[in-house]
């Protein structure tokens, strides 16, 4: 590769000639074919070894250098295929967390964005992205119940980015001077104990500080306790602080608790009015659960999709919370979660588009985007400068799935979970489902010794020692599941909830296993194999002793 013409071969053609196109498509075909050869429906990973001995990353660091000579296409396909080997893959037994498979429309959309490689910063550089983004903002505003003529938004870096910009707006609304002068020292933000840690990072990065994140207790359905919110807001105000931001999680990551935005808003407004303060900005962290708003206008009496009774009840229960999404000042749809598109395709929406002007840059401060002399679409309120047009992927998915496609998929997740819960508790008296009140795509469960269960534990009837021993018992399960995850891939968490105990004032974190339906290929007929797998794990750990010594 000595000449510029040689290097040109590494790019898509300039003139659209058939020969170059063919070579390009062949490369893609080879890659897809290689990946297909690694697939097996009974495995939650692609074939091949992906063990990582202790010095794996260290060895890579020691040996990786940019090659002097260009490589060959065949070698490249080979090395990319090698990366695929042993990779987690979203087959029927892929049941861990919210790690979805990217759908074909999602991939094609992302591919289109890459082919064009426009910059979504400005419509002169990225007209396709600007158009697709405008469309998906309006489409999803309608789903959330926002007025698309007043709302606005943009695609951003994850549910985390949405929580972050919600906070930027909250600060700017409370103190418009903050963007010039910095954040006042008395602002406070609130979320439930079950909220995603995004808010902690946002509090740090905006300069508010993590100590000003106030955690609100949750109720038995893992949703925010409004009475505790009122109390804690009052405490903050009594001490000279000002509540500016509340994150209401609509679909928590571990247990699908759904905060009630309506009651949270009225509780918060009540407190603020009493002190003659303006309402705080409410961000619905609907990154995960917001997609269930696709059922907000589903006619459950007509039931056009023939959803079974138990599933319909679950969906109705979820929709009864999702219908309040429009009361939030901002919200998020993480399309790379239940929206079935590749990473990273998150959509942040604001109810009132004027809010974004509070954090916008002055035209004079962004001169190289034409100083806004031409082009109609500038996104200088985003924290990113250059932006990928991930809206094209979102648009492609929305067009090809339609509301109905999403409804079928999301209903199947609920159905599999409800049936799994039943099979699980029927088969194992010692296992409790720890989110029994939350229908949704996730089931959390915990193995007890015969005399205990989740209800007793939640009520504070167990000792610290018993809870700790139960944690160890479940950790042993995690170990078993972890060793065998190439077959069935479950998730776990060591802080599902904090429970009281009988013999101490401490709140103790509880360890649970999670089954997250995220693969379109998981159906109710796969439940027996999953139950067998859990039985093997329980069997393998049953004779272990889980005694602990608790220092007194
Ligand atoms: C996943 C998730 C986030 C973080 O989203 P990213 O896209 O990973 O940045 C925030 N909140 C909730 C409720 C989530 O489920």
Structure description:
The protein has a domain at 4-89. 41% of the residues lie in helices and 12% in strands. It has helices spanning 4-8, 18-37, 56-63, 73-84, 104-116, 127-144, 158-174, 178-181, 198-206, 226-238, 261-274, 309-322, 354-357, 391-427, 454-458, 464-483, 527-542, and strands spanning 94-95, 152-156, 187-192, 213-216, 242-249, 281-285, 330-334, 346-350, 431-433, 442-447, 489-493, 498-501, 504-509, 512-516. A hairpin with a 2-residue loop joins strand 12 and strand 13. Helix 12 (309-322) crosses helix 14 (391-427) and helix 16 (464-483) packs across helix 17 (527-542). The model has no long low-confidence stretch (mean pLDDT 95). Residues 158-160, 196, 198, 249, 253, 285, 287-288, 334, 346 line the site of pyridoxal-5'-phosphate.
Summarize the model shown.
The modification N6-(pyridoxal phosphate)lysine is found at residue 337. The chain has a domain at 4-89.
Q: Report the strand count.
A: 14
Q: What is the average of the pLDDT values?
A: 95
Biggest pleated-sheet summary: 7 strands, mixed
Bound molecules: pyridoxal-5'-phosphate
Strand content: 5-15%
First-residue to last-residue Cα separation: 72 Å
């Amino acid at each position: 590769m000595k000449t510029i013409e040689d290097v040109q071969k590494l790019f898509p053609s300039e003139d659209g000639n058939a020969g170059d196109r063919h070579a390009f498509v062949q490369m893609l075909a080879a890659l897809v074919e290689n990946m297909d050869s690694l697939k097996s429906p009974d495995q939650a990973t692609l074939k091949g070894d992906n063990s990582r001995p202790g010095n794996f990353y260290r060895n890579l660091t020691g040996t990786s250098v940019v090659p002097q000579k260009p490589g060959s296409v065949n070698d490249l396909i080979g090395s990319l295929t090698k990366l695929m080997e042993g990779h987690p893959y979203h087959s029927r037994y892929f049941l861990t967390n919210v790690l979805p498979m990217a759908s074909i429309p999602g991939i094609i959309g992302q591919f289109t964005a890459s082919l064009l490689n426009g910059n979504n910063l400005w419509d002169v550089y990225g007209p396709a992205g600007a158009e697709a983004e405008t469309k998906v903002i309006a489409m999803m505003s309608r789903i959330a119940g926002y007025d698309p003529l007043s709302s606005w938004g943009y695609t951003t870096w994850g549910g985390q980015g949405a929580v972050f910009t919600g906070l930027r707006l909250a600060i700017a609304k409370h103190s418009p001077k903050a963007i010039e002068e910095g954040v006042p020292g008395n602002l406070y933000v609130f979320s439930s104990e079950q909220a995603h840690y995004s808010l902690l990072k946002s509090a740090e990065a905006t300069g508010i500080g993590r100590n000003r994140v106030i955690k609100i207790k949750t109720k038995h359905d893992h949703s925010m306790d409004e009475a505790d919110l009122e109390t804690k807001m009052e405490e903050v105000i009594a001490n000279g602080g000002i509540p500016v931001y509340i994150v209401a999680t609509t679909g928590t990551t571990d247990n699908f608790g759904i905060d009630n935005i309506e009651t949270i808003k009225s509780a918060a407004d009540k407190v603020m009015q009493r002190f003659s303060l303006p309402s705080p900005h409410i961000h619905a962290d609907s990154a995960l659960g917001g997609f269930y708003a696709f059922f907000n206008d589903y006619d459950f009496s007509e039931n056009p999709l023939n959803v079974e009774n138990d599933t319909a009840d679950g969906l109705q229960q979820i929709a009864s919370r999702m219908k309040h999404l429009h009361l939030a000042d901002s919200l998020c749809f993480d399309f790379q979660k239940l929206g079935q598109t590749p990473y990273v395709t998150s959509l942040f929406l604001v109810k009132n588009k004027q809010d974004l002007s509070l954090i916008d840059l002055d035209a004079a401060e962004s001169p190289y985007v034409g100083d806004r002399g031409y082009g109609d679409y500038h996104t200088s309120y985003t924290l990113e400068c250059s932006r990928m047009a991930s809206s094209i992927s979102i648009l492609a998915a929305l067009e090809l799935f339609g509301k109905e496609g999403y409804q079928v998929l999301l209903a199947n997740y609920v159905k599999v979970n409800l049936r799994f819960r039943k099979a699980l508790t029927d088969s194992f008296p010692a296992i409790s489902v720890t989110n029994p009140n939350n229908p949704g795509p996730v089931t959390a469960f915990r193995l007890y010794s015969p005399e205990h269960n989740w209800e007793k534990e939640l009520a504070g009837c167990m000792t610290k020692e018993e809870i700790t021993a139960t944690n160890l018992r479940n950790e042993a399960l995690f170990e078993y599941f972890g060793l065998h995850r190439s077959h069935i891939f479950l998730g776990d968490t060591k802080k599902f909830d904090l429970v009281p105990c009988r013999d101490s004032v401490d709140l103790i974190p509880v360890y649970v296993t999670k089954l997250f339906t995220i693969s379109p290929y998981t159906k109710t007929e796969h439940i027996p194999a999953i139950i067998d797998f859990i039985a093997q794990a329980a069997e393998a750990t049953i004779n272990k002793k889980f005694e602990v010594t608790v220092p007194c």
